[in-house]
Amino acid sequence: MTEPGGTQARAPWRATVLTLFPELFPGPLSASRAGEALKQGLWALEAISIREFGFGRHRAVDDTPAGGGAGMILRADVLGAAIDHAVAGNPQSPRICLSPRGEPLTQLVVRELAKGPGVMLLAGRFEGIDQRVIEARALREVSIGDYVLSGGELAAMVLIDAVVRQLPGVLNDEQSAAEDSFARSAGLLDCPHYTRPEVWDGEAVPAVLMSGHHAQIERWRLKQALGRSWQRRPELLERRGLSAEEVKLLEEFRQELKN
Ligand SMILES: C[S@@+](CC[C@H](N)C(=O)[O-])C[C@H]1O[C@@H](n2cnc3c(N)ncnc32)[C@H](O)[C@@H]1O
User: Fold this and answer.
1) What does DSSP assign to residue 32?
2) Atom 18 in ligand 1: residue holding the nearest Cα
3) Euclidean distance between CA atoms 164 and 104, whole angstroms
4) pLDDT in the model for residue 172
5) pTM for the structure as a whole
6) 137: closest CA among 64, 203, 196, 190?
7) What tens digit of pLDDT does each residue of 136-157 get?
8) CB within 8 Å of 222: residues ≥ 6 apart
9) Which of 124, 148, 207, 236 has the fewest CB atoms within 10 Å, i.e. the most exposed one?
10) Could you tell me if the CB of 183 is within 6 A of ligand 1?
């Protein structure tokens, strides 16, 4: 589309949300300036049901955690297919998975996203998402704060709202000018999760989780939680303090990284 001055009009910023509850959208995003801007076509929103990619008569999307434990895990194969579908329409857009163990959503991140063509957002549910899909689809994990919501939909809305208000023409000039300005063991980031299939996209569930050895599984999970916290949020370890056993596990994690 070409504007009167001869310049190429920018395609509206586009949010594509993968969710088990597409009916929640646009929800609060239909109100106020974000809602008006949506109607005006300054940005676009598509909520896609993950269930469309589920298996069988019941469109199953989740399964029990590899290695045992509470809750259900969203399957890598279901999510992989859903993501591939969503990305086909927006290949240039960053892919984000809403997660309490992600990098914090900051204004810097919001501004960066507003400069791009849009975003694909995966809203999790249940205990979490099979780790392999996060890695295989290079999902950027983003958290809206150190607390656990029931699902990623509200977090997706928070992110979208924060970005949309940065888009040209959404806020009036006055508002724009005025604008310039977590868990396995308590206090740790969560460990990676896996479920069936045991091998997906050439990637196997870590062998310890299939061992049936509960003490070793717990030890592995605590080590991963310590390691990820150390890598991503070192201040969490300082705040919490580590037992002698945890110091040993973290050292093992560091050594494994080097190997
Ligand atoms: C019950 S939570 C799973 C929490 C996970 N077991 C953990 O402790 O990291 C279900 C979903 O809600 C979303 N969610 C929960 N809290 C969030 C937060 N603070 N920021 C972003 N997304 C969040 C994520 O999409 C997550 O997969």
Assistant:
1) H
2) 100
3) 18
4) 76
5) 0.86
6) 203
7) 999 999 999 999 999 999 999 9
8) 184, 185, 188, 191, 246, 249
9) 207
10) yes
Given a cut of 70, the residues of the chain with pLDDT beneath it are 1-9, 173-185
Residues making up the chain, counted from first to last:
259
From 125, 132, 165, 184, active-site residue: 165
Quote the tokens at residue 60: 């199953």
Tokens of 125: 């549910």
How confident is the model at residue 124, as a pLDDT?
98
Asked whether 186 and 241 are in contact (CB, 8 A), the reply is: no
Q: What is the pLDDT of residue 2?
A: 46
Smallest Cα–Cα separation from 154: which of 12, 9, 25? 25
Q: Note if 165 is an active site residue.
A: yes
d(CA 166, CA 169): 9
The number of the ligand 1 atom at minimal distance from the alpha carbon of 150 is: 1
**Token pair belonging to 233:** 């949020």
Nearest CA among 100, 75, 96 for reference residue 200: 75
Closest approach atom of ligand 1 to CA 143: 20
